[in-house]
Amino acid sequence: MEVVEGKGELVSAEEELGNGGIADVGTQADEVGVVYEQYMYYFSGKGAGVGRNFAGDRESRDLMEGNLKPVRVSFEGNIGVGKSTILKLLQSHPRLQEITEILQEPIWEWQNVKGTGLNMLDAFYKDPKRYAYLFQSFVFTTRFLQQNKAASESKADLLLMERSVLTDRCVFVKTSTEQGYFNPLEAAAYDVWYDGVVSTLPNVVPDAFVYLRADPNVCYDRLKARARSEEAGVSLEYLRSLHSKHENWFIENAFKNAGNGNWGGKPQVGYFGTSSKIPAVIQGRPVFVVDCTNTLDFGRPSKEVDRVVEEIVSFLLGPCTSLHQV
Prior knowledge:
The protein has 326 residues and is an alpha/beta fold. It is built from 13 helices and seven strands.
């Protein structure tokens, strides 16, 4: 696993994530004390590195006494790339079993809204122009409630999440807006409450990201193979649009535009830049990129799958486990 330390500017992150009302690094550190200062020191890029620990300090004592919140890692990628499958593999990994909690995307809530039998996921795919705003708002709400509760109550060291609320805004809402599914009024309204929630409730912001990257054609074939009824009408064009948003968010913003060079096409760590143009909530946070090509199908056991799983585990037990919060 190759590590690229963060530096330089993230020129388009403000546009991608929004910056309304988000506190800066110094303000956040002042509010929560010494341990969070160390935490922000890591993310500011000044202390970026693998396996950083603060042995002997208050963080270590809190870890032993069980007072720390879990490190939140969001697994990102296109529809059909294999996020659910890799999370199941990690959940059963012997090095992670005792310290990890998995949060699968709450798709069951979208398929059966409040037990009514009403399927919002199906409604969105059948008539996206009519239901996009309602669907994306509901997705954000269910994801936020699930992840905020787990971040507050989980006793695990690592909280592995299938996507995050940032994905909702940076990938799916942006795609819906570009394709005309959101009108300008809906897009503006979404941004208002999205910025407010993300800026005031840090539990919903991941500490690190794992980006599972695959060609949209591969994702399309896997989507068809799993035959989820609601996805029958999902087009390759839609998957290509989602892919481009993921590429801009992670490859462009954590490598090229962050001064880290080009992503090398192999499991590799990059860091979001530390420019003032990027919201403080994700400055310097690590991104581990995995290329999920045709030969890397997490649903089929192979030596390559085993190797990549071990790479991800090393990332989770390296850059991530030193990021505990009080």
